[in-house]
């Protein structure tokens, strides 16, 4: 209702309004001013990072179209109940599917659409693991039978591996698949409480089929976990089939649009052909044909694929968080040193810039590593299809460590970004709380991060031991051939500016990793009482240093990828010198920030002196200052659309306060003026006779 305000009231107020307006913030102008400070061509970098102008325009076009659909409408996003989130997630998945069909789009456009809407639902695992498992584990006949059904959504699948009792230790799975040669069928069964499948996404209420990981028994012998495809729900009424109990596992920390589920199997029979037989096989008579030794871990291939995609996506999520925090801290003003002065943009506080700008640099570092990771996985697929599995161990070691490192960095980075946004960062309307709760599971799923680091550490120590016996190393572990030399090496930086040299930074990363590898191998030898043992007590007692080694190696790899990518850009002349300079500042800031955090190791080993650490810190601070003018342009170059960010604080026009006020209107609590508690509780209590007497 319109509210009448008399003239006297207005006049009295006028003076105070003027006083406040004189130094109140103008977020739109602030953001425009930040953009004017760019030292490079933002459009050029935007197109480079996003694969060209055409892709950038295509994404904007898609966003425009889907934001007008019912399933693409995000206005209710932060106010949905779990049930609403689940149903909405399904509508989004089908909406994207139909949109792709209608416009004849391919899988890469599909990924763009999924990322634009960003509403994970019951079909994630169908696309993320069920179809990839069929592609990597099924033989050609099985692919011909199942892939068309999966790709047309005639069936919906998930990947059922983890059980109540085992997630990490895949060899310890308890679900059994026992071959009955008389009927040429497997009996799949959950023999214990702990064998209950638990966690698979989409299993609770959506999936009709699963890739089941179960221990294969034939002729009384246990051959360990293998993959099977089986139906779990009727295609008529969606009810579970006989002998199958399924349900949703309940609310989680985040990711609640997904129906992660449980499953119990009671003596369910599936045909022999249900076993995915691209590598290992079972004959009708029940003889087990193992995969060739070179690809003994072939049944773990889907996990490696997913780990690679997780590495690829980590940079994107960190970039989104950093975009929101950078735009907001550029327009947020707080505290003035003298009366009448404008308040300071919070990004200009050293404590804010010193935390946020290194994260911005890290987001760029992860972008380049994500590209290298996917290239490596694609190369592996190509050689695998020719029967060559020789690069499997390195791919496994590389993807495990990077999966752990990149997801740790991104999870921590989203939370840091949220904290830097102060109170408004705690509001879901900022986009950051939901981003955190639905991202952080990346540290656990697809291999707990510590467990993944241990896999990388194992590979590195074995590589070092091999090199010590004269074996030639390849790929990213090559530096371990010189580990003995590195043990004696000292940093030769003697001025602040010398720390800007990428070679000096790389040498420090490499030296730290090499020394830690030698230390870890030594400790393992000691724990083993001689030759290193990679399991049991000796291994468990060496976990901390092995994880430290894997972290150091992964940091070296990420830095090296950044450096090599930039060198490539330079030598191919792909970007103008000003743009390359802005990227070089980021490379330096990323490198020196990580090294600064880890100086303890390098002081302890004697690689660095206290003076060199001082110089390093000074140069790192100088780089924070150098990057500051380009902060907003550098996040603009990521190219996130407002629709994609769904954040009141990350708006590209900077109008954050209007954004908060507008988005809050959709709160269900605002549907009536008096609110839902008035009739139900407040009125009765507050009008109760005697309720005004004091306690
Ligand atoms: C509309 C279109 C839109 C399109 C958009 C696309 C949408 C995408 C959506 C994405 C959604 C994705 C969601 C993903 C959800 C995650 C689901 C899960 O968690 S699923 C569940 C995930 N669960 C997990 O991740 C479980 C984690 N656990 C494991 O992976 C294993 O148990 C283990 C690796 C820890 C140990 O395995 P174990 O067998 O005990 O092995 P040992 O330690 O004894 O080592 C023995 C030897 O084996 C070697 N080796 C090992 N692995 C590999 C490998 N892969 N390769 C090669 N080698 C390997 C190892 O190096 C060693 O070699 P050596 O030294 O002897 O030479
Ligand atoms: C949101 C979400 C979705 C998921 N989706 C799926 C899915 O679709 N399909 C599916 O099959 N699974 C899924 N999972 C399961 C997931 O893959 C497992 O939770 C994960 O692999 C970790 O295993 P765990 O839960 O057994 O952890 P645990 O192994 O019990 O880990 C507990 C702790 O023990 C430590 N630890 C365990 N083993 C070792 C070791 N050997 N050495 C040193 N430390 C060790 C870990 O580091 C961790 O700190 C999902 C999980 C989540 C959270």
What's this, in brief?
Residues 41-156 form the Acyl-coenzyme A oxidase N-terminal domain. The protein has 25 helices and 11 strands. The protein is an alpha+beta fold.
Can you walk through the features of this model?
GO terms for molecular function: acyl-CoA oxidase activity; FAD binding; fatty acid binding. InterPro entries: ACOX_C_alpha1, Acyl-CoA_ox_N, Acyl-CoA_Oxase/DH_mid-dom_sf, Acyl-CoA_oxidase, Acyl-CoA_oxidase_C, AcylCo_DH-like_C, AcylCoA_DH/ox_N_sf, AcylCoA_DH/oxidase_NM_dom_sf. Belongs to the acyl-CoA oxidase family. This is Acyl-coenzyme A oxidase. One of its GO terms (biological process) is lipid homeostasis. By secondary structure, the chain is of the alpha+beta class. Among the domains are: about 130-290, Butyryl-CoA Dehydrogenase, subunit A, domain 2; about 305-475 and about 485-635, Butyryl-CoA Dehydrogenase, subunit A, domain 3, CATH 1.20.140.10. The chain has 25 helices and eleven strands. The chain has helices at about 5-20, 25-35, 40-50, 55-65, 80-105, 105-115, 125-135, 140-150, 300-330, 350-385, 390-420, 420-425, 430-440, 450-470, 485-490, 500-530, 535-540, 545-570, 575-595, 600-605, 610-625, 630-635, 640-645, 655-665, 675-685; strands at about 155-160, 175-180, 185-190, 195-200, 210-220, 220-230, 245-250, 260-265, 270, 280, 290. Strands 1, 2, 3, 5, 6 and 9 form a six-stranded mixed β-sheet that branches. Helix 10 (about 350-385) runs antiparallel to helix 11 (about 390-420), helix 16 runs antiparallel to helix 18 (about 545-570) and helix 19 crosses helix 21 (about 610-625). The radius of gyration is 28 Å and the shape is globular. Stearoyl-coenzyme A binds near residues 111, 127, 128, 162 and 169. The site of flavin-adenine dinucleotide has 24 residues, from strand 1 and helix 14.
């Amino acid at each position: 209702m319109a509210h009448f305000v008399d003239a006297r009231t207005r006049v009295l107020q006028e003076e105070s309004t003027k006083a406040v307006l004189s130094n109140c913030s103008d977020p739109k102008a602030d953001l425009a001013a930040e953009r004017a400070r760019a030292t490079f061509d933002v459009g050029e970098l935007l197109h480079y990072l996003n694969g060209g102008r055409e892709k950038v325009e295509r994404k904007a076009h898609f966003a425009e179209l889907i934001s007008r659909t019912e399933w693409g409408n995000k206005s209710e996003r932060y106010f949905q109940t779990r049930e609403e989130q689940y149903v909405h997630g399904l509508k989004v998945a089908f909406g994207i599917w139909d949109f792709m069909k209608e416009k004849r789009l391919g899988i890469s456009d599909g990924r763009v659409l999924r990322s634009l809407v960003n509403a994970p639902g019951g079909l994630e695992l169908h696309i993320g693991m069920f179809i990839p498992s069929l592609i990597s584990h099924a033989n050609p006949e099985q692919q011909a039978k199942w892939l068309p059904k999966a790709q047309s959504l005639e069936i919906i699948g998930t990947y059922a591996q983890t059980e109540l009792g085992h997630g990490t230790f895949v060899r310890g799975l308890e679900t059994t698949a026992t071959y009955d040669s008389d009927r040429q069928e497997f009996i799949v069964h959950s023999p214990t409480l702990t064998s209950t499948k638990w966690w698979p996404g989409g299993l609770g209420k959506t999936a009709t089929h699963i890739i089941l990981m179960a221990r294969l028994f034939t002729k009384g012998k246990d051959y360990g976990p293998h993959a099977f495809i089986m139906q779990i729900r009727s295609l008529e009424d969606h009810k579970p089939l006989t002998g199958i109990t399924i349900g949703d596992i309940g609310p989680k920390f985040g990711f609640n649009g997904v129906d992660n589920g449980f499953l119990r199997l009671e003596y369910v029979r599936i045909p022999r052909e249900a076993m995915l037989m691209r590598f290992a096989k079972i004959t009708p008579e029940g003889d087990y044909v193992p995969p060739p030794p070179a690809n003994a871990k072939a049944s773990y291939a889907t996990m490696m694929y997913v780990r690679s995609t997780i590495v690829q996506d980590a940079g994107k999520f960190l970039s989104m968080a950093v975009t929101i925090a950078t735009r907001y801290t550029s327009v947020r003003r707080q505290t003035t040193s003298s009366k009448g002065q404008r308040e300071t943009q919070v990004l200009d506080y050293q404590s804010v810039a010193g935390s946020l700008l290194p994260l911005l640099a890290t987001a760029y570092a992860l972008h380049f590593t994500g590209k290298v990771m996917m290239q490596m996985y694609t190369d592996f697929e190509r050689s695998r299809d020719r029967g060559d599995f020789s690069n499997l161990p390195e791919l496994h070691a590389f993807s495990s460590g990077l999966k752990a490192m990149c997801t740790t960095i991104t999870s921590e980075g989203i939370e840091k970004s949220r904290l830097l946004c102060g109170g408004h960062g705690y509001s879901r309307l900022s986009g950051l709380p939901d981003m955190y709760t639905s991202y952080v599971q990346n540290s656990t799923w697809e291999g707990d991060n510590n467990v993944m680091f241990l896999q990388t550490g194992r590979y590195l120590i074995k590589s070092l031991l091999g090199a010590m016996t004269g074996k030639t190393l390849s790929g990213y572990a090559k530096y371990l051939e010189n580990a003995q030399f590195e043990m004696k090496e000292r940093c030769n930086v003697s001025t602040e500016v010398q720390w800007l040299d990428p070679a000096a930074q790389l040498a420090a990363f490499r030296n730290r990793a090499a020394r830690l590898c030698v230390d870890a191998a030594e400790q393992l030898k000691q724990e083993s009482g001689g030759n290193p043992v990679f399991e049991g007590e000796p291994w468990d007692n060496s976990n901390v240093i092995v994880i430290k080694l894997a972290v150091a190696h992964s940091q070296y790899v990420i830095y090296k990828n950044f450096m090599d990518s930039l060198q490539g850009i330079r030598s191919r002349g792909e970007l103008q010198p000003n743009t390359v300079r802005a990227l070089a500042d980021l490379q330096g800031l990323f490198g020196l920030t990580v090294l600064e955090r880890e100086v303890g190791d390098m002081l302890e080993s004697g690689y660095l002196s206290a003076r060199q650490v001082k110089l390093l810190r000074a140069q790192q601070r100088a780089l924070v200052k150098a990057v500051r003018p380009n902060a907003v342009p550098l996040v603009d170059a990521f190219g996130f659309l407002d629709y994609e960010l769904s954040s009141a604080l990350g708006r590209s026009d900077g109008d954050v306060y209007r954004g908060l006020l507008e988005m809050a209107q959709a709160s269900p609590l605002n549907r009536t003026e008096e609110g839902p508690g008035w009739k139900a509780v407040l009125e009765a209590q507050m009008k109760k006779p005697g309720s005004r007497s004091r306690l």
